[in-house]
Design a protein that fits this description.
Blueprint: H1 2-17, H2 26-42, H3 46-53, H4 60-76, E1 79-93, E2 96-107, E3 118-127, E4 130-138
Antiparallel strand pairs: 1-2, 2-3, 3-4
Length: 150
């Protein structure tokens, strides 16, 4: 097992230092950002979400407190984590993007919180320290996720 892990690290290092290795498209970078956001969300990690993913509140501290209040409300309903069904990302400008996700909120007993099928959209901006969600919006869970019209 130790040898396998070492071999995998060598392969990853080679990919990172190989200039001919394919780079991710800007859309894939935003999609990966959204998957990272979901990982932090599923840990109920308000501080990380506020610091590394959101630019929606007046301060990181106020955004952290707001997120924690939201998680408290969800946990009171039995919420444990979200199951992501689809992520779509689109570059909308030089430093702007749009993303959307279809998901279910899953309770500790494994059952979904109603409604089972949900969707949200996100407006993102690229700052010096990377992509950040600047606003959240709705999306229709029973409609295909589609980039906003230009």
């Amino acid at each position: 097992m130790r040898m396998l892990c070492g071999a995998m690290l060598l392969v990853l290092a080679a990919c990172e230092t190989n200039p001919s290795a394919p780079s991710l498209s800007p859309e894939r970078v935003v999609e990966q950002f959204m998957w990272g956001y979901t990982e932090a969300w599923n840990r109920h990690d308000s501080a990380t979400i506020a610091r590394d993913f959101y630019r929606t509140g007046p301060s990181v501290e106020e955004q952290t407190a707001s997120l924690e209040r939201g998680f408290e409300g969800l946990r009171a309903q039995g919420y444990k984590q979200s199951a992501i069904h689809e992520v779509k990302a689109c570059i909308t400008g030089e430093d702007t993007a749009w993303a959307a996700m279809k998901f279910s909120r899953i309770k500790a007993d494994g059952e979904p919180l109603p409604p089972k099928d949900r969707a949200s959209s996100y407006t993102l901006k690229k700052f010096a320290d990377g992509w950040r969600i600047t606003s959240l919006g709705g999306a229709v869970a029973d409609q295909p996720l589609a980039c906003p019209a230009a």
